Amino acid sequence: MKPLIVQKYGGATLADPDKIKSVATRVAAQAKDNSLIVVVSAMGKTTNSLIDLAQQVSHHPQRREMDMLLTVGERISMSLVSMALNDRGCPAISFTGSQAGIFTDDSHVNAFIKDVKPLRVDEALRNDKVVILAGFQGVSPVTKEITTLGRGGSDTSAVAMAAAFKAERCEILKDVPAVFTADPRVAKNARPIQELNYDQLMDMTFWGAKVLHYRSVELAKLRDVTLYIGPASNKTSDGTLVKKGLNMFESSKALSLNSHEKVLNVICKETHAEKALRHLQDLFAQNQIAFPQLLNCEIKNGSTEILLTGPEEIMVAIKKELQSQSSFSLSSTEFSTVTLTCTGSTSPEIPQQILEKLSAHSIPLHRMMMSPMSTTVLIDSKDRTRTIETLHTLIAV
Length: 397
Ligand code: ASP
Ligand code: MG
Known about the structure:
34% of the residues lie in helices and 27% in strands. It is α/β, with parallel strands linked by helices. It folds into two domains: 4-242, Acetylglutamate kinase-like (Carbamate kinase, 3-Layer(aba) Sandwich), CATH 3.40.1160.10; 249-397, 2-Layer Sandwich (VC0802-like), CATH 3.30.2130. The chain is globular, with a radius of gyration of 22 Å. The relative contact order is 0.11.
């Protein structure tokens, strides 16, 4: 029996017909020695263009209809990749999430995978076909509706498939060929990281690393799926391996810097935080806005202040909605978070170094937040690049 590998190709690696053909050539070569499930994202910026289209015809597009619209993106890539593979003499078949038995809860735009019953995938693999699967989507067995998993969700589709088939590993293949110590576009000396454990990568993705969907790492940990993040080109070196049990003892070491570029501070004239949060959830639900990522909540000066972040389209929708609300206001300052993921968070050493660096560069700090794996600073958005550059010097070579 050939080993089974799940590979996920990101949107940038499928952005045009030539790129799709090179992915197909690579997959066809690997299919000689492996059984393959290939999960695909939408081509290039297709998902953003579809969201744009929706906004041109509706102020509050129904979340159900958004799912009908956005799943089209992955459906285009899956069929094109399958065609290109068959052209190369490599038998392949494409499936949507629902055909592949990806069952989710019944929420729209941000559904959770509840079960995978991949009968047709199994049958195709037995017939020696490469399976091309549309990422980011599933179906609710209760409502029978098509659902999506949230922006970047095709990583989570890939991990769910790898878990269902107990695949050898799940490879996330991208233009960015590894997990880096910081965003290489911001920190010039950013370096690829060879090995990480699940908790480290979960912390990094929670605090803004775009390299992987947070939920995919959580699911990989839960189901013990070995993850590899590497280049989609034929170069097989480099890449980051994510698994449990790295060979190390205790240390206090900075690993990686990540950032949420846009963080909204929502202020509610309400000292009962539970009421403020409930009110906000109801408001978003009424307006078809998916609840974004909650970063912090505190009572301050007789109000509840809530820090939120999320995809650009959700941030824009929230800003627009809150403008017309009397019970909520938004801080006028634009905030960002910068997080240093590290080991040995119980020692004050790394937080002290962070504070010294900020002070040396006269970067005002609004808040510092601790977690078992990291220290996060809340700063003005205008200081974000400087903060990343200066804190990156704390990550030893
Ligand atoms: N195409 C979707 C997005 O852009 C899903 C994905 O890429 O994983 O968010
Ligand atoms: Mg995409």
